[in-house]
Design a protein that fits this description.
The structure is a single chain. The chain contains 4 helices and 6 strands. It is globular, with a radius of gyration of 16 Å. The protein is 25% helix and 19% strand. It has helices at 25-39, 123-129, 142-155, 172-185; strands at 3-8, 45-51, 99-103, 134-140, 159-168, 188-190. The termini are close together. A 6-stranded parallel sheet has the order 3-2-1-4-5-6. α3 (142-155) runs parallel beside α4 (172-185). The chain has a single domain (3-197), classed as 3-Layer(aba) Sandwich (Rossmann fold).
Length: 202
């Protein structure tokens, strides 16, 4: 069994004080860092995604321009490439990350599987290269990019766990629905305490 950790969009603009900050975002960054400090050897590869939007266009209608965002399909400007908002939250220790995925360059993108790394590899290709069958998903936001990434991982044939103490969502109700949808699709909902234990391989 080969396992990967996918860290979804733990960026300044998605944490407290950011353009689309969610409550609990900084705690997710701290918790993921703690997980990797204690259990890096539980993972054969660690992948982290970031929104990395263009500055000079509306990114395929993703940014609301000249109108109020609906916070469903259109959003305020966020995670613009090269800005502080697009950077990882400072509490996230990036030393343990093997692959850095950028997504949303000129178009809407929610799932980490929609992005590429600096060598144009997709998440699916990286997982294939490492023979990964098991994926743990953490990050922001539960009800959007975590949801989409988890569903895509299942669609790509991986067994998925969502570590529910290491995700943060936009709203409680939509986050609960997202987790229920992931569970219905086959994901296991567990906490990070399961990582590194005998039960983690069950």
């Amino acid at each position: 069994m080969t396992r990967a950790l996918i860290i979804v969009d733990v960026q300044n603009d998605f944490t407290e004080g950011g353009a689309l900050g969610v409550d609990g975002g900084a705690a997710v960054a701290e918790g993921v860092t703690r997980l990797l400090a204690e259990h890096r050897d539980a993972y054969d590869v660690v992948i982290a995604s970031r929104d990395w939007h263009d500055a000079d266009n509306d990114n395929g209608g993703h940014f609301a321009v000249g109108a109020d965002p609906d916070f469903v399909e259109t959003w305020p400007e966020h995670c613009v490439a090269g800005t502080d908002g697009a950077e990882y939250h400072p509490a996230l220790d990036t030393a343990h990350i093997d692959a850095h995925i950028r997504k949303g360059q000129g178009k809407p993108a929610y799932s980490a599987f929609e992005g590429i790394d600096e060598t144009d590899r997709t998440v699916s290709q990286i997982l294939d290269e490492h023979g990964v069958t098991e994926v743990d998903v953490v990050g922001i936001a539960t009800d959007y990019c975590v949801r989409a990434t988890g569903l895509d991982a299942i669609e790509h044939g991986r067994h998925v766990r969502v570590l529910t103490d290491l995700v943060a969502g936009v709203a409680p109700e939509s986050s609960e629905r997202a987790l229920a949808e992931l569970a219905h699709a086959g994901a296991a909902l567990t906490e990070s305490s399961a990582v590194g234990t005998a039960a983690a391989g069950d």
